[in-house]
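Worked example 2:
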Amino acid sequence: MTFLVMAPGVEIITLTRDRNLTRKEEVDYLNANGYFADFTKLKYSYNVGIWGTSICGGELLDPTQGLPEEAYLKHVTAQAPEQLLKIEFEKGEIVGVNGEKFDDRIKAIQKIEEIGASYAIGRDANVGDTIIGIKGRVGFEAAAPKLIIEAHRLLEKSTLSKWQQYWKDQVANWYGMFLHESQYLEPVMPDIEAMLTSSQRNVTGTAILKLRPYGFETVGIDSANDLTKSKLGEYGETQTGWTADEAKGFIKVSSTPLRVYYGIHKDEKR
């Protein structure tokens, strides 16, 4: 779509789409032209990129099955049974991995992928909706995205306000859908990007994860912008920002709409 809009005079060649080729037809074509190899894994198709590897075909065509071990390209090679991974963010962007600084975000992602892939982290399958309306099932192995997204989310929970988190998630969902449906050139996209960029102004700090074979868990965060470090009180502990009587008043005022409703509908139960 982007080429059609931005370079309308360019011929677009898409053999697989235009000829509707099957995997068997592709293998037969290669064999007929003198190219022989181990095509065992051609029951799957792989798309390898910076943001992980997608896997299509094979067992995924049966919704009751998952991918076998041999379908994945990366396997457990880590020597330690567990490892801490510390990802440092500045205004929402990665600037450090385990104490190593990065100016190049791509290299930072590749470093996280290297560490996470050694534990075979990031394996999963996704069922998504296409723009034409059919659903597709795709397997993937994406250690870096799984770790980065969870680390970033963990840091956001402590540094964003309640409504920043809410609206950022709503807008991000729309942005992701538009991007997936080739709407990157839609004029609303830079508007959404401006909001997302603004939301990250205080997302600075380090998220700490614990890695193990095939999985990980969140440990915590270290940030000067951590909103849980409030002088007004600590959740589940003591508070200094209000009195007991003020809390009672707050509860009474907040309950007013419900007290009005159930005062009139006395027989309605929940």
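Residues 92 and 152 are 7 Å apart (CA to CA). The mean pLDDT is 92.
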